[in-house]
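Title: Prediction job returns without error message
Component: structure pipeline
Severity: low
Priority: P3
Assignee: unassigned

Description:
Job completed but the reporter wants confirmation the result is attached to the right record. Sequence as submitted:
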Amino acid sequence: MFVAFTVGALVFKRTRYEEADFAIGGSEEAARLLEMKVDRVKITAYTVSGALADFAGALQYLAKYAGDQRYQLRRDLHKISPEQLQGFHTG
């Protein structure tokens, strides 16, 4: 998480993205008049935001179920194919 924060901070402070993002947040029309690529900046912002949210969700899932044996058993049972289970059929 620290690495993602550091990379984001460096990209935001050392590129023109900060200026464009700030301008679009104030007024999209004014940013368009300044010939900024509003659509591209918005797509980039939403894409990065979604990717980081997915990453955070995956980390939260892994942290929550890392040591729980019930979920480990369930994951192992998903790996067993129906053909393997036929050998265990007693009826």
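Comment from assignee: result matches the submitted record. Residues 12 and 19 are 9 Å apart (CA to CA).
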